[in-house]
Design a protein that fits this description.
This is KFA formamidase. By secondary structure, this protein is α/β, with parallel strands linked by helices. It has nine helices and eight strands. β7, α7 and β8 form a beta-alpha-beta unit.
Length: 252
């Protein structure tokens, strides 16, 4: 419902291809009153890498476009069609596309939920030299994410993903924390009070690993929410994470 309201109210470009794959499309929600340049929040959906889509992911747009911030919902090829290496690469390539196609963008802010937080965290470990473009990532909000994939290898989640141990290790942000450089973005790791103990453990340990590597990290424990409404409530102006996001993504 939040995405439908955003599509009805905001200026949008839907299903913008950033590559040739079926899932390689973006939904872009433009600011209501854009300045000459504007920041963009890039939202990466969850769904255990095998369900949901960008078509469900515009619910956070309205509180931000009204403040002069563009919102981009990223699509990627979920399993079983997509595999983990490809999904990580697709999200990285979506940022390259935005930088190259929209020169008015001033600063990228990433937000991912659950599997989307995993993909956003993998962006932080990217060696951009192989892409010959470096996105200006100013901040990252990781909500109830998965940062170590090995524990899910022998669960039902991997029945569709079909990851080997090598693939899981290669794509675990916890194993690829890079030393912070002077231009490193600020990172907010958020976790729900009623998330499972494993989600809470991984959020705490990943934030500690980033901090040990010199990153500027905050850990936000959100009371009274679970794994799902922790992100769905971003459609509400008064929600604490919405307010934090507006402060973290300055219009000017």
């Amino acid at each position: 419902a939040g995405t439908e309201r955003a599509r009805a109210s905001a200026q949008t470009l839907l299903h913008v291809p950033y590559g040739n794959g079926d899932g390689e499309k973006l939904d872009i929600y433009f600011p209501t009153d854009p300045s000459e340049t504007f920041p963009v929040l890039v939202y990466i959906h969850g769904g255990y890498w095998q369900c949901l889509s960008k078509d469900d992911s515009g619910f956070a747009a309205l509180p931000l476009v009204s403040q002069g911030v563009a919102v981009v919902a990223v699509g990627y090829d979920i399993a079983p069609k997509g595999h983990m290496d490809a999904m990580v690469l697709q999200v990285r390539r979506s940022l390259i596309f935005l930088v190259e196609q929209y020169p008015r963008i001033r600063g990228i802010y990433l937000c991912g939920h659950s599997a989307g937080a995993h993909l956003a965290a993998m962006v932080l470990s990217t060696d951009w030299t192989e892409f010959q473009v470096v996105p200006d990532i100013k901040g990252t909000v990781l909500v109830s994410g998965v940062y170590d994939l090995e524990p899910i290898l022998h669960t039902y989640v991997n029945d569709v993903l079909n990851m080997s141990r090598e693939v899981a290790q290669r794509n675990s942000p916890m194993r690829h924390v890079t030393p912070a450089v002077p231009a490193a973005c600020e990172v907010l790791v958020a976790v729900a009070q009623h998330d499972s103990p494993e989600f809470r453990r991984q959020s705490q340990e990943y934030s500690q690993a980033l901090r040990a590597a010199g990153w500027s990290v905050s850990l936000l424990d959100l009371a009274g929410v679970d794994h799902f409404d922790v992100i769905e409530k971003l459609s509400e102006d008064s929600y604490v994470l919405t307010r934090v996001g507006r402060r973290a993504v300055p219009r000017r």
